[in-house]
Structure formats: C-alpha cells, structure tokens
C-alpha cells in the first residue's frame, strides 16, 4: 500500500515538474547550460519552435528541445501559446481567433514594414545597422571580467 | 436588408453594444448565444461578432513580441529623422558591450530582436528606448556621464523602459482597437491591399504615439519612477555601484540647468527630484570608479566627449 502511495506521489511530482509544451517567441532563442544569460549556449531555437518546459525557477525554464537537447531558457523567450508559423495552411487559419494559438507574422509585421519602406516614408538603414550589433556570451563575460564586475549572478 | 436581419441587428446591438464599453467578453458571448438560440443569428455570424468584440477588448499588452519588434524598428527610424545617428564604430561597439551586458541581468533579457544600442549626433541631453530594445543615446547625454558606471545607469534606466513596455503603453487605445479588428478579420494568407493599407495607417499612428511620448510629452512620472527603481535593481544585479544612478542624475541636473532644460528635462521629472527619491536606496557603494572601467570609458568616448 505504502509503495502504491509513493508511486502515485512520484507520478504527481513528475507531472508537476513538466509545465508542458511552450513556444519560442523570440527570433533567436539560446538554450543555455545554466540558468543565466551568461551561461554557455547548448542549442539555438527559432521563433515558433516548440520545447518541453519544466517548472519555472527564478525566471528560467528547464527545457528539452525537439531534437532532445536540454538546457535553460529565460521565461521572456517563451510563450504558453502555440505559435503557428504563417504558412497559409489550415492549421494557421484555425489559429486566427484562438486564445491558445498565436499566428506568427500576423498584424504589425514585415509586410507593413515593406509597405512603409516602398513608400519611402522611413529609412531603415541605420535600424538594420544597429540591429547587427550582437555579442556572444563570451564577449560579455570578458568585458565584465576585465571591468572587475562580479560574474554570473542573476 | 430583410426584416429578419434588421431584427437580428437590433437584438445583437442591444445585447452587445453596452459590452463594447464595459469590456466584458464573457457576457458578450452569452449575448450572441441568446441571439443564436432565438434563431436570429447563424453560428458563423455569432462567431464573427464574438471575434470583433474580442478584438475591441485588446490592449497594448496583447501586442506580441514580434509586433513590438516591428513597432520599435519604425520608432527608431522615425527618431533618426530628428536625431541623426553618430557614425563612430568604436564608441558604438563599447556602448553595445556595456548595454548588452546590462540587459543580460534584466527581468526581460530576451526580446524578439534583442537589445541594441546606438549613439545619436546631438548635443541635447536625451536617451530613447524604442519598444523591443533599440536604445538610443545622444552625445549630450554621454557628456553627463563621468565614467562607465554613470553611463551604465543611463542605459539601465532605458532597458527598464523596454522591460516594462512603457513605449507600447503610450499607443492610443482607439488605434489598437482598429488594428486588432483588422487583424482579427485578416485571413491566414497575405493581407489584401485594402487591409494592408488600413493596418499600415494604424501602425503609423501607433509609431507616432510612441515617438511623441519619447520626444515630446514623456512617460508618466510613475513610469519614470518605476524605471529608476528597476534600474537600481538592475545595476545591483550586474555588479555596478548603484550610487552611480544618483551621481549621474545630479550631474544631469547641473547640465540641464546650464542648457535651459532642453531634451531630457522636457520629457522627464526633474533630475534633482529623481536623485532625491533614489538616494536612500541607491547611495553608498564604491566611491572611486574602477580604473579599468574608467579607462575603457574614456578611450571609447574620447571623441564624443571632446567634441563640444
């Protein structure tokens, strides 16, 4: 009997540990080895990718990617809504009015930006240039270490 | 219009119109349910009305990170029309190292397109946070900072505006209601010409609302206080002395008085009052700036600070 109760408790705990499927809501998500933005990157995930998420811990979800890699993603990179990539498929059409599904590329999107560009209303050249300023976790860690800033605490 | 449709229209309007103003979706769906039960609405008509009522309820908080990203890009592009970018690669590279290393400690380290920083070629003392993480800092603002720690305080404040989506909150609800109605009726495939034109109009209006807030009217005092308090927490987490926030504001106050209150003063509560509010929580810590940080700040910003 005791073994049975223990087994049930174990199953409940295992269930609680798995928050379930979540979608990546940023363009390039980085799955990190530790729950820190300065942690090394173990996998990259793209907008709309699904991951299996565990229990949220201080802003970080332990995740397993579709190809089985495990690590941590910050909650700001994930959405509980399923993000359906715009493909014109029936799946995408079904997502239009659902609270559980978000359609990628819907609303204020690339098409709207293209229209503004084509009308010559806004010059995006510097926006594109500044968006290319990206740094790796190693460069940030080096900058912080050289500046005698205490490392890693989130 | 047949009398049946006319009656359906009156019934649905009488059931749903008050709800458009009270924003109660659950009851509005019940309303269309009654109309359906009365046999005056088909299920697809009811679904369509429910969808539009839902669209009216949407607010800036319902904008996805992807939409925030496109708004932020247009906001930055519009700000550049008044404040031209400063093409100084070493200074901009340093600004991004500092800014991105701070953003890593934010409560919202991940945005759709990430955090990126750029200097503006203006003597005005100002800084702008476009939604999604495009952060712009004028040369005049850099001159208010004596060291990396004080520049970190400026950037932390702007990062916290992004974290709290203050820019998006300045978009007029009417525009968003229009936009969400168009979005709700948009098909899964490419938008039609008219839909795209209408959505682009709402997009331009939304971008103008944000730009107006950033450059002219300013955020609310409460939002500024929230960004200041969050910036102090962010600096602490990232290992920077929080007192830099107070000293930066004090220095800004002096400079703003000298320049007659242009730029930042126009859109922010007085730097003096902000410094006073933070002194209790942010004062203390390192008195002398770290020499390596001081040196790299001076090297990177030499050309900026020298041009007066």
Structure in words:
- The complex is a heterodimer of chains A (154) and B (308).
- With 154 residues, chain A is of the alpha+beta class.
- Chain A is 31% helix and 27% strand.
- Chain A contains five helices and nine strands; from the N terminus they run αββββββββαβααα.
- Chain A has helices at 2-17, 90-94, 110-118, 125-131, 137-146, and strands at 18-24, 28-32, 41-46, 50-54, 60-65, 70-74, 78-79, 82-84, 101-103.
- The longest helix of chain A has 16 residues, at 2-17.
- Chain A is flat.
- Residues 6-17 and 88-98 of chain A have low confidence and may be disordered.
- Chain B is mainly alpha-helical and 308 residues long.
- Chain B is 68% helix and 5% strand.
- Chain B is built from 15 helices and three strands.
- In chain B, strand 2 (127-130) and strand 3 (134-138) form a beta hairpin.
- The model of chain B is unreliable at 1-41 and 48-53 (pLDDT under 50).
- At the A-B interface, helix 3, helix 4 and helix 5 of A face helix 3, helix 4, helix 5, strand 1 and helix 9 of B.
């Amino acid at each position: 009997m005791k073994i049975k109760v223990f087994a049930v408790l174990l199953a409940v705990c295992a269930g609680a540990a798995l928050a379930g499927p979540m979608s990546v809501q940023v363009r390039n998500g980085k799955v990190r080895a530790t729950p820190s933005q300065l942690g090394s990157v173990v996998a990259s995930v793209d907008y709309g990718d699904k991951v299996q998420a565990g229990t949220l811990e201080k802003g970080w979800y332990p995740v397993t990617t579709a190809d089985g890699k495990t690590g941590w993603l910050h909650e700001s990179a994930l959405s509980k809504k399923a993000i359906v990539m715009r493909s014109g498929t029936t799946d995408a059409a079904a997502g239009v009015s659902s609270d559980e599904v978000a359609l990628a590329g819907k609303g204020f999107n690339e098409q709207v930006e293209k229209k503004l560009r084509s009308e010559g209303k806004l010059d995006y050249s510097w926006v594109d240039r500044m968006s290319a300023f990206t740094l790796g976790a190693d460069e940030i860690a080096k900058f912080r270490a050289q500046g005698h800033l205490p490392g890693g605490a989130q | 219009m047949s009398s049946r449709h006319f009656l359906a229209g009156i019934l649905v309007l009488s059931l749903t119109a008050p709800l458009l103003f009270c924003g109660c979706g659950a009851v509005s769906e019940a309303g269309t349910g009654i109309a359906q039960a009365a046999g005056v609405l088909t299920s697809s008509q009811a679904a369509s009305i429910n969808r539009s009522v839902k669209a009216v309820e949407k607010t800036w908080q319902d904008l996805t990170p992807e939409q925030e990203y496109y708004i932020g890009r247009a906001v930055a592009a519009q700000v550049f029309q008044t404040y031209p970018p400063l093409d100084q690669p070493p200074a901009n590279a340093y600004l991004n190292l500092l800014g991105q290393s701070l953003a890593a400690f934010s409560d919202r380290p991940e945005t759709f397109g990430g955090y990126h920083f750029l200097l503006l070629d203006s003597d005005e003392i100002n800084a702008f946070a476009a939604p999604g993480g495009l952060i712009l800092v004028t040369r005049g603002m850099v001159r208010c900072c004596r060291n990396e720690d004080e520049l970190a305080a400026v950037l932390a404040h702007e990062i916290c505006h992004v974290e709290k989506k203050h820019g998006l909150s300045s978009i007029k609800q009417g525009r968003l209601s229009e936009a969400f109605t168009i979005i709700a009726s948009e098909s899964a495939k490419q938008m039609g010409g008219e839909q795209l034109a209408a959505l682009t109009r709402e997009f331009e209006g939304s971008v103008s609302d944000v730009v107006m807030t950033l450059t002219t009217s300013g955020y609310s005092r409460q939002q500024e206080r929230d960004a200041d308090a969050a910036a102090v927490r962010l600096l602490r987490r990232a290992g920077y002395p929080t007192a830099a926030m107070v000293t930066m504001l004090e220095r800004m106050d002096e400079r703003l008085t000298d320049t007659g209150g242009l730029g930042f003063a126009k859109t922010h509560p007085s730097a003096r009052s902000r410094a006073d509010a933070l002194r209790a929580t942010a004062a203390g810590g390192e008195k002398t700036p770290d020499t390596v940080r001081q040196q790299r700040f001076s090297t990177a910003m030499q050309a900026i600070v020298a041009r007066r």
